[in-house]
User: Which sequence fits this backbone?
């Protein structure tokens, strides 16, 4: 479970990214964060990952209090979370296999385990057979598939996606969202997006933000942005 309790984040010069927001996201729940640019969506993702710390309030992620200044389990927290970015962040000098396998290699996993998990991840995202291909040879949609495969490998409990269809055409965007839908019920999925069509088509929980506040929390259903 992810819990935000009266969380605020203020940056220098008085810029308030989020202002006393509270919500809970259950294990294996599928949630969209929506709202205009600057609403605070990305700030929430960064707070969950502890890339930044809140100015006030409490955040608990899978029983880990990430707002505890004495927190010693940052690495353990991040091993639970996979990240999918708008601009893919795929390493250009590594093959598809190497990009996807990197996290497990860093953890010291056995070669046989890495091969097995990479194969399973690439099968799920539809890239099996392209293990030796380099990113420059892939389309934007294929690069995002690599990014998703990298995010799910290692049996992550949560997937955070920041505008995962932002650089994709409508057809490819829908194909990418179908991959996320395959993961539904197996991991907690939080997607920050502007894509109204995707949000309304999938009919999941929608947390609507504006100017750092939650203005609506639709438990199931689309929302006209």
Assistant:
């Amino acid at each position: 479970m992810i819990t935000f309790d009266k969380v605020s984040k203020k940056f220098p010069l008085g810029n308030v990214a989020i202002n006393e927001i509270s919500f809970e996201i259950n294990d294996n729940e599928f949630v969209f964060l929506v709202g205009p640019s600057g609403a605070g969506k990305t700030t929430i993702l960064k707070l969950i990952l502890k890339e930044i710390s809140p100015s006030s309030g409490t955040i608990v992620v899978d029983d880990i209090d990430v707002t505890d200044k004495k927190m010693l389990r940052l690495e353990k927290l991040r091993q639970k979370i996979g990240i999918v970015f708008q601009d893919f962040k795929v390493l250009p000098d590594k093959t598809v296999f190497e990009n996807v396998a990197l996290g497990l290699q860093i953890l010291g996993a056995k070669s046989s385990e890495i091969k097995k998990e990479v194969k399973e991840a690439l099968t799920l995202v539809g890239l099996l057979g392209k293990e030796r291909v380099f990113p420059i040879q892939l389309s934007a949609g294929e690069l995002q598939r690599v990014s998703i495969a990298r995010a799910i490998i290692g049996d992550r409990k949560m997937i955070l996606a920041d505008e995962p269809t932002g650089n994709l055409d409508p057809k490819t965007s829908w194909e990418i969202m179908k991959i996320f839908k395959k993961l539904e019920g197996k991991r907690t999925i939080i997607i920050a997006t502007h894509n109204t069509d995707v949000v309304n088509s999938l009919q999941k929980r929608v947390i609507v933000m504006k100017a750092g506040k939650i203005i609506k929390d639709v438990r199931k259903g689309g929302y006209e942005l």
In short: The radius of gyration is 17 Å.
